[in-house]
């Protein structure tokens, strides 16, 4: 497993310094969540008379929080559809929940280095924290922030500030935001943090031109190895 620094970003000392804090996306960064998301979303689309997305379409289109993504899909009934989706998802998500490869080892490594860890996700905050407790990971994080916990959701900076609250660490180049989507990278830039892309597939040409990653790593252990070397 390897990592690389995206050469489109300036290799200054702020980018290359070891972070004081790392804020993580949750779904498909620390845990594998697509099967549960797709199953619950399919049930919701069918309930409200919409053509369900394919699994690949779900992976491509699910980015923003419910309060941003559901109104265009369900119109005035978006809150009702959101409640249905949450109920469907809550019934199955723990059965599908699976850590991404190397996640727990990485969290232990970074915690051992004295790095503050937090989570910012567009998953409902109550569900998010339930999953963290289920996996026994809640002790790794200073704060776990989900949708509706802050005044605005990711990619706004509000949830990042909330995730750092009480840590004594402010948003800036000493904080890395690690995630697998364009929304994560945008959130990092919006909050003044270092954007880090974590996923198996390397970025495609032009994919992240608007908010390019400062670092790209292929997975959690690669991220841990990168930080240890700094």
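-> sequence recovered:
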């Amino acid at each position: 497993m390897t990592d690389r620094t995206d050469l489109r970003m300036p290799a200054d000392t702020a980018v290359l310094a070891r972070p004081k804090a790392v804020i993580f996306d949750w779904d498909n960064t620390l845990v594998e969540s697509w099967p549960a998301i797709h199953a619950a979303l399919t049930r919701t689309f069918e309930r409200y008379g919409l053509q369900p997305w394919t699994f690949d379409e779900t992976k491509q289109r699910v980015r923003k929080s419910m309060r941003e993504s559901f109104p265009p899909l369900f119109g005035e009934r978006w809150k009702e559809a959101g409640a249905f989706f949450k109920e469907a998802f809550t019934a199955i998500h723990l059965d599908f929940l699976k850590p991404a490869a190397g996640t727990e080892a990485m969290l232990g490594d970074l915690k051992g280095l004295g790095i503050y860890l937090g989570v910012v996700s567009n998953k409902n905050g109550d569900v998010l924290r339930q999953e963290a407790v289920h996996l026994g990971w809640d002790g790794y994080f200073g704060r776990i922030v989900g949708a509706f916990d802050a005044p605005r959701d990711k990619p706004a900076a509000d949830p990042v500030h909330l995730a750092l609250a009480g840590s004594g660490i402010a948003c800036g180049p000493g904080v890395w935001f690690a995630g697998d989507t364009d929304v994560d990278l945008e959130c990092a830039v919006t909050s003044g943090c270092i954007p880090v892309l974590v996923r198996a597939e390397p970025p495609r040409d032009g994919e992240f031109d608007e908010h390019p990653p400062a670092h790209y790593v292929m997975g959690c252990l690669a991220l841990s190895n990168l930080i240890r070397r700094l």
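The beta strands are 3-5, 21-24, 31-32, 98-99, 116-124, 143-147, 175-179, 194-198, 215-217.
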